[in-house]
Amino acid sequence: MKTSTTKPPMAKPKKDFVADVEVTTDLLQVLHKDHKNVSELFFQFSQEDDDKEKKAIVTRIIKELTLHAKAEEDVVYPAVRDGADDAEDIMDEADTEHHVVKFLLAELSDMSPKDEYFDAKVTVLCELVKHHVEEEEKEMFDKIKDADLDLEALGQEFLDHKEEALGKKPLPKDKLAVVGSRVAAKKKTA
User: Fold this and answer.
1) CB within 8 A of 153, min separation 6: which ones?
2) Which of 154, 140, 144 is nearest to 182 (CA)?
3) What pLDDT was estimated at residue 14?
4) What is the arithmetic mean of pLDDT over 101-126?
5) Which of 26, 28, 42, 106 gives 126 a disulfide partner, CB atoms 3.0 to 4.6 angstroms apart?
């Protein structure tokens, strides 16, 4: 006599937190994820002794910060300036910090770990970025939350902008005006 064995139904695997963060388009989560990625690269650099590996890490830092800064300046900062109350001082400081970061990135891109001040410049860059991130995640994130912006749409636009800069995905022309039209629509309703 044959007995049938019924297998219990397979439990649906739970999504882990990392997977959830990777697929979100919420602007604040997207920015925070970028910040954490760069922080990890700075940590890796601080633990590395091999010059070839140090240069590779700095090359990744340069790429990540360049893409992030450009997308912030083109997508996020205009939305915050136009949509948040009393944001001018915070945004002026953020723009200035980006300017200094870009200066250090340009210098580091032409340097080697054997060059004098290479490690010192990476350390200063790390400290500047850490300060910038702390202010951004405290002050600017509050302004973004108070501005009643569409965080999903802005997050997607931020990600699209980074992808376009990498040459991976063209940004449709109708998306280029999303921030401007959203701000214009908000002003009309105010």
Assistant:
1) 25, 178, 182
2) 154
3) 37
4) 97
5) 42
**Rounded CA gap, 52 and 54, in Å?**
5
Q: Check: CB of residue 179 under 8 Å from CB of residue 83.
A: no
How is the chain classified by DSSP, letter by letter? -----PPPPPPPPPPPHHHHHHH---HHHHHHHHHHHHHHHHHHHHH---HHHHHHHHHHHHHHHHHHHHHIIIIIHHHHHHHSTT-HHHHHHHHHHHHHHHHHHHHHHT--TTSTTHHHHHHHHHHHHHHHHHHIIIIIHHHHHHTT--HHHHHHHHHHHHHHHHTSSPPPHHHHTHHHHHHHHHHHH-
User: Quick one: pLDDT at residue 167?
Assistant: 84
| The pTM of the whole model exceeds 0.85 | no
The structure tokens listed for 48 are: 């590395």
**Mind listing the pLDDT tens digit for each residue in 145-171?**
988 899 999 999 999 999 998 887 544
Q: With 60 as the cut, is the pLDDT of residue 39 above it?
A: yes
For residue 36, give both structure tokens.
Answer: 């954490």
Find the distance separating the first CA and the last CA of the chain, reported in whole Å. 78
